[in-house]
Amino acid sequence: MEGEQAIIPLPCKYRAEGCFETVLFNSKFGHEERCSFRIIYQCPIDPVCGQINGYKNMCIHLKNHHTNVFNFVDFVEERESFCIGVFKESENIVHAFHIKQWGLFFLQKVCVGDLTGLFMQVIRAATNQLDFNYSLEVCDHNETRKEYFKGCVLPMEKPTEEIMNTGKYLLLSDLILKTINTESPIMIVVRIWKNV
C-alpha cells in the first residue's frame, strides 16, 4: 500500500490560492513547504497600503486598488519575451505586471542614502518554474539620456537591503534623478523573459 501511495499524484493544499501543481505523495510535503502560493506578501506598491495577501489575493488587490500602476497580461508565448514601455512620474516609479502563466512581477524603487535604484522582483505562478531575466531601459522624455540594465528577476522573499548590497539593480544617474525630481516624466522600457 505504501508503494502505491508514492506514485499517486496529489493536489497541492494551496490549490484554493491558485497552485494547480500535482505532486507525488513522497514529495507533497516538500512542495508545500516552498510553494509560492503559501507565502504571504505585503503590498509592495504603497507602504501605507498595508495589505497582506497570498499570490491570488494579491493579484485581486492590485487590480482593485492600484489599477494606475498595474498591467495584466493574459498570455506570453513560452519562448517569447514580455515588453512594455511605461511613462512614470517621480513619485510613482513602482509598477506591477501580472503575466498569467509566469507570475506577478514588480518594478521596485529603492533608495539608500543618496543612491536610487530600480530592480525587478517576482512572485512566481508555479514553484517549479525556471528563473526569469529582465532588462530595464530608462530615458528622459526627450530620449537624450538613457540608462540600461540587464539582470535576473529576484524572488519577492529577498529583502531590499540584501538586494542593495548585491548591486543587482539599475543605479539611476544624477542626470536621470534630476529629470525625475523636476516632475518631468521618464520612460521605462521593461522586458522580461524566461531563462531557458
Structural class: alpha+beta
Number of strands: 14
Known CATH architecture of the largest domain:
Sandwich
The named CATH superfamily of the largest domain:
Apoptosis, Tumor Necrosis Factor Receptor Associated Protein 2, Chain A
Shape: elongated
Strand content: 35-45%
| Biggest β-sheet strands, sense, barrel | 6 strands, mixed
**Spatial extent as radius of gyration:** 19 Å
CATH topology of the largest domain: Apoptosis, Tumor Necrosis Factor Receptor Associated Protein 2, Chain A
Number of domains: 2
Order of helices and strands: HEEHEEHEEEEEEEEHEHE
User: How far apart are the termini?
Assistant: 39 Å
Low-confidence stretches: none
Number of helices: 5
Helix percent reads 10-25%
For the residues shown, what is the average pLDDT?
79
CATH class category label of the largest domain: Mainly Beta
Protein name: SIAH-type domain-containing protein
Keywords: Metal-binding, Zinc, Zinc-finger
Pfam families: Sina_ZnF
Organism: Gryllus longicercus
Describe this structure in words.
Helices cover 21% and strands 39% of the residues. It contains five helices and 14 strands. A hairpin with a 3-residue loop joins β7 and β8. The longest helix has 11 residues. The protein has two domains: 33 residues, no CATH class; 127 residues, Apoptosis, Tumor Necrosis Factor Receptor Associated Protein 2, Chain A. By secondary structure, the chain is an alpha+beta fold.
